[in-house]
């Protein structure tokens, strides 16, 4: 073996014949490979501490001061800190999942992903895994610092359910991100506007800073369609167990069920859309950048 | 090269490939009925100006684009249907490619791509280090990709293209923007890689005629989506110049020049006007431009000059270049075609995308 010959195969036909095990391991490695830049990026570009923790924390603080000025129950400060932590995930979904494939195309990465012997779902899973790692770090810092500065007391009596709800929320959120990523491939600039248009309204209807039940029918609608809304509603119940101010729309276990359905639905939809859109993009020439 | 008796599928087999892009005010025909057969083991070149359709053909062959009409296969795998198999045996490297992530180190970037081809964790690192050394990026191995020069970047791209031991490598302007030394390094690596295993194929597009001439076993000249000619560089050159032309510099010429012109196999013998000569005017020599039916006729001329007591100071055979071939086939020079080719409309979506990139 040399630099010119790494894995010797006798013919292209032999080289193209992969066992199911090799297909699986290649896709698993691709997930980790694509997650790698995001994990490294969190360490290599420390500017995120300012832009993604310090600045959003100011918004969180503003809500805290308003609630305190209004002499709202102390749980409301906890709601705001929890919501502030979850903001990191929603921003990550919008700008580093949904919009990512569009940027990847500009950089020329998309054509390399599509021309590699892997499923694009592996790339999306890798992006999601890396994004989850990045955002979890940020969310944890906001949660910790917020809880310390504003004396938030969390009361958790169902740790396992809380963890389950958190991971199901992530599954559903990143599944939604994958669906949006597919839209970006298809729509380009219009999808960019979609992301911009989704950012603030989703903050609002998800009840990042207050119990979503206060929104009445809109809250019910949000819980049935937006993973962040249902995830937050369930997590509020679980981290402020027994509080009369949580006002949940549904029991946490029921919301976990909704999240499970959402995660399966969004991931399945993303898989189907990627297939359709890859076909369409190959017809219309949207996988690549320039040149005739 | 594999012999035809091996009955191996063609490395590339394109039949009637046509590709039309939707655009306003009218659709753009990027490829217009391309037929191309490349044998396994060939280093095949596509030569043509911007907008000729070279990159579109590569995109079709690498499964990134579907032909509007016609069919194409690579090593027997249909580019439209057998994408999974085909993607396992190919790779693509484009000139000026900015792929990957600038914050990663060179080693990390290559390792990331190695994972997309299923190399094991430690196997990936070993392979990456081998390739980094082979392309001469050892000193940059732990530098951020964003800090690389154009030449280093292109070496990195080439290393990426070799990660998976492809059976076919598509090189789209691989030496674009590289200095002479870097371009030579890329060419040597590519040639070495191809020679290492019989049956490996390269499809190369290039603006650089000399590069195509030097590297390619065969080439196709492409313009406006059509293949105008296919052959070895020598075959194509013979299309524009069937006779042999020699330039002789001799110390003196006694007797009549016309007698040389009457020798067997000599079509003409002239002394070019002084303004056509590029040598030092102070030199006391005579230049003869000979047009012969074939190279063998030169022997008679040399003998005749010797009989007359003339000594040959210099002898040079005038070869047509691929540029001459291009002019003959297209009716205009390559540089002129480049300018005209650039005026072809961009793909509709690209127009929007470019605007967006600027906004960002």
Briefly summarize what is shown:
The complex is a heterodimer of chains A (292) and B (360). With 292 residues, chain A is an all-alpha fold. Chain A is built from 12 helices and no strands.
Keywords, separated by commas or semicolons:
heterodimer; A: 292 residues; mainly alpha; 12 helices; 76% helix; elongated; B: 360 residues; alpha/beta; Rossmann fold; Alpha-Beta Plaits; 2 domains; 6-stranded mixed sheet; 4-stranded antiparallel sheet; 13 helices; 24% strand; disordered C terminus
How many strands of chain B?
Answer: 14
CATH superfamily of the largest domain in chain B: P-loop containing nucleotide triphosphate hydrolases
Ends distance of chain B? 49 Å
- Helix tally of chain A? 12
Report the structural category of chain B: alpha/beta
Radius of gyration of chain A: 21 Å
Instruction: Write the element-wise H/E pattern of chain B from the N-terminal end onward.
Output: EEEHEEHEHHHEHEHEEHEHEEHEHHH
Shape estimate of chain B: globular
Number of domains of chain B: 2
Reading off the top of the CATH hierarchy, the class of the largest domain in chain B is best stated as Alpha Beta
- Oligomeric form: heterodimer
Largest sheet of chain A: none
Could you tell me the mean pLDDT of chain A?
85
Largest interface: A-B, 56 and 78 residues
């Amino acid at each position: 073996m040399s630099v010119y010959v790494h894995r010797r195969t006798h013919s292209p036909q032999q080289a193209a014949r992969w066992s199911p095990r090799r297909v699986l391991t290649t896709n698993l490695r691709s997930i980790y490979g694509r997650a790698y830049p995001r994990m490294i990026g969190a360490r290599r570009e420390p500017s995120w501490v300012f832009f993604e923790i310090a600045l959003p924390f100011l918004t969180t603080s503003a809500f805290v001061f308003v609630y305190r000025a209004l002499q709202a129950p102390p749980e409301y400060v906890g709601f705001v800190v929890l919501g502030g932590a979850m903001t990191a995930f929603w921003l990550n979904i919008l700008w580093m999942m949904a919009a990512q494939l569009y940027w990847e195309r500009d950089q020329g990465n998309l054509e390399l992903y599509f021309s590699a012997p892997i499923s694009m779902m592996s790339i999306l899973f890798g992006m999601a895994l890396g994004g989850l790692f990045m955002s979890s770090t940020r969310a944890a810092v906001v949660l910790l610092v917020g809880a310390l500065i504003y004396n938030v007391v969390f009361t958790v009596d169902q740790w396992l359910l809380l963890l389950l709800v958190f991971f199901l929320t992530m599954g559903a959120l990143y599944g939604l991100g994958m669906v949006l990523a597919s839209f970006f491939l298809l729509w380009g600039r219009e999808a960019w506007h979609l992301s911009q248009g989704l950012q603030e309204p989703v903050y609002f209807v998800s009840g990042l800073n207050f119990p979503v039940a206060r929104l009445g029918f809109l809250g019910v609608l949000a819980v049935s369609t937006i993973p962040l809304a249902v995830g937050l509603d369930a997590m509020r119940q679980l981290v402020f167990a027994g509080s009369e101010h949580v006002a949940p729309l549904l029991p946490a276990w029921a919301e976990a069920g909704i999240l499970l359905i959402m995660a399966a639905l969004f991931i399945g939809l993303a898989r189907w859309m990627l297939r359709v859109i890859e076909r369409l993009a190959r017809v219309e020439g949207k996988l690549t950048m320039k040149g005739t | 090269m594999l012999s035809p008796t091996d009955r191996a599928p063609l490395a590339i087999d394109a039949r009637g490939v046509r590709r039309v892009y939707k655009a306003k005010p009218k659709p753009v025909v990027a490829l217009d009925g391309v037929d191309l057969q490349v044998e396994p083991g060939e280093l095949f070149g596509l030569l043509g100006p911007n907008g000729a359709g070279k990159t579109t053909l590569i995109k079709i062959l690498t499964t990134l684009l579907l032909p509007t009409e016609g069919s194409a296969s690579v090593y027997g795998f249909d580019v439209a249907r057998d994408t999974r198999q085909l993607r396992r045996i190919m790779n693509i490297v484009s000139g000026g490619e900015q792929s990957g992530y600038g914050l990663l180190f060179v080693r990390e970037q290559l390792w990331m791509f190695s994972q997309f081809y299923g190399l094991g964790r430690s196997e990936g690192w070993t392979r990456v280090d081998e390739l980094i050394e082979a392309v001469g990026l050892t000193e940059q191995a732990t530098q951020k990709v964003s800090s690389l020069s154009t030449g280093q970047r292109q070496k990195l791209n080439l290393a990426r293209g070799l990660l998976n031991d492809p059976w076919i490598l598509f090189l789209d302007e691989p030496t674009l923007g590289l200095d002479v030394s870097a371009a030579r390094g890329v060419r040597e690596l590519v040639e070495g890689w191809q020679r290492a295993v019989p049956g490996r194929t390269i499809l190369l597009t290039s603006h650089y005629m000399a590069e195509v001439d030097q590297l390619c076993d065969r080439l196709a000249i492409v313009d406006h989506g059509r293949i105008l000619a296919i052959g070895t560089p020598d075959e194509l050159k013979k299309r524009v110049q069937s006779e042999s032309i020699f330039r002789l510099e001799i110390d003196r010429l006694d007797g009549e020049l016309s007698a040389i012109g009457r020798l067997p196999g000599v079509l003409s013998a002239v002394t070019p006007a002084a303004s056509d000569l590029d040598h030092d005017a102070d030199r006391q020599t005579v230049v003869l431009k000979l047009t012969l039916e074939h190279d063998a006729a030169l022997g008679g001329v040399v003998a005749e000059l010797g009989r007359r007591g003339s000594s040959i100071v210099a002898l040079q055979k005038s070869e047509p270049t691929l540029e001459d071939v291009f002019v003959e086939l297209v009716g205009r020079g390559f540089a002129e075609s480049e300018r005209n080719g650039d005026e072809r409309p961009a793909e509709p979506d690209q127009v929007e995308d470019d605007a967006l990139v600027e906004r960002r």
